[in-house]
Amino acid sequence: MTPLPPVHRRALLLAAPALACLLIAACHDRADAPLPARASATRAANPATPPARPKDELETTASHVIGISYPPGLERYPALATEAQRYASQARQQLLDAAKQRPPSAQDGPYELSLEFKLDHESPEMVVLAVDGSAYTGGAHGTPLIQRWVWLPPQNRRLTVADLFPQPASWQRIAGEVRAQLRSELELRLDADNATPAERAAATKSAAPMIEGGTEPDPGDFAVFEPVLDGGGKITALRFVFPPYQMGSYADGMRTVELPAARLVQDVAPAYRPLFAITG
Fold first, then answer.
1. Is the pLDDT of residue 2 over 60?
2. CATH code at 162-275
3. 200 touches 190 (CB < 8 A)
4. Which residue windows does the record flag with biased composition (Low complexity) (predicted)?
């Protein structure tokens, strides 16, 4: 992975000419008034090096295949790029550890890691970075790897759902609305499949505890989210993303539920309400 820009080394390089001028002036007992102009000229001749884009990775061996790609422009947010690289590094290490522990008799193909990072939104107030991928370490299928980062450039930090909704009572309402939508979606699928009453009862009995277990009224169950934005970059809804296994089988795939801003903004912390199209 590409390291962060060598800020300290640049600072030393920029300071060296000014320091030399000061020493010469002291030796010749001359005034130091011209020094700021010299320092300015030096800085103009040595502009700051822009941060480097994180490097894509492609590694192919007999035991594993790793492919990681980063989007152009991510280097504009060095701290966010560091978060993305840390996520990729952890996934990479987990795959390599699994490959080392792989039984010699295993008949599966090479273990695989695939991660594709994308900048879904960029504005002065907010940046949204998404990664979708998978890790295969044997078995019938891989493990989906899904994450979202909502970044606030003015504060140079990540915005979490716990920041947005700090009150426990808010999560009772959010969990209740998400569960209601998921149950409604289940009913629509059963209608589309022309399920018999017995099939409907069995499916509902099976899905209910998984929905409940995957949507506890806690920020941890809603940590992966992405804003739905209007043309001006304001949030009109929040889309909660639930990876496979959180509330169903692999075959159920990734699930998403959108809640409109009008039903959320009353619970949003006041500091973040200006990000929403409806401020309450």
1. no
2. 3.90.640
3. yes
4. 38-47
Q: How far apart are CA 119 and CA 76, in angstroms?
A: 11
Q: Where are the beta strands (DSSP E) in 202-254?
A: 225-229, 235-242
- From the list 63, 270, 226, the residue with the least C-alpha distance to 132 is 226
In the chain, ranges of CATH 3.30.565.40 domains: 57-159
**AA letter at 61:** T
- SS3 (DSSP) at 125: coil
Stretch (H or E) spanning 60: strand 57-60
To which residue do tokens 């820009």 refer?
Answer: 5
Residues of the chain with CATH 3.90.640: 162-275
Q: Is it true that domain 57-159 has CATH number 3.30.565.40? A: yes
Q: How confident is the model at residue 252 (pLDDT cuts 50, 70, 90)?
A: confident
Q: To the nearest whole percent, how much of the chain has pLDDT over 90?
A: 66
Taking the CA of residue 187 as centre, how many other CA atoms within 13 Å lie in the half-sphere pointing to its CB? 6
End-to-end Cα separation, the chain, in angstroms? 44
Alpha helices in the chain (DSSP H): 7-27, 35-45, 78-100, 161-164, 168-192, 197-214
Amino acid at 26: A
Element (H, E) at 259: strand 255-260
- Dihedral angle over CA of 91, 96, 101, 102, nearest 10: 100
Q: How many CB atoms lie within 10 A of CB 241?
A: 19
CA neighbor of 41 nearest in space, from 8, 7, 18, 11: 18
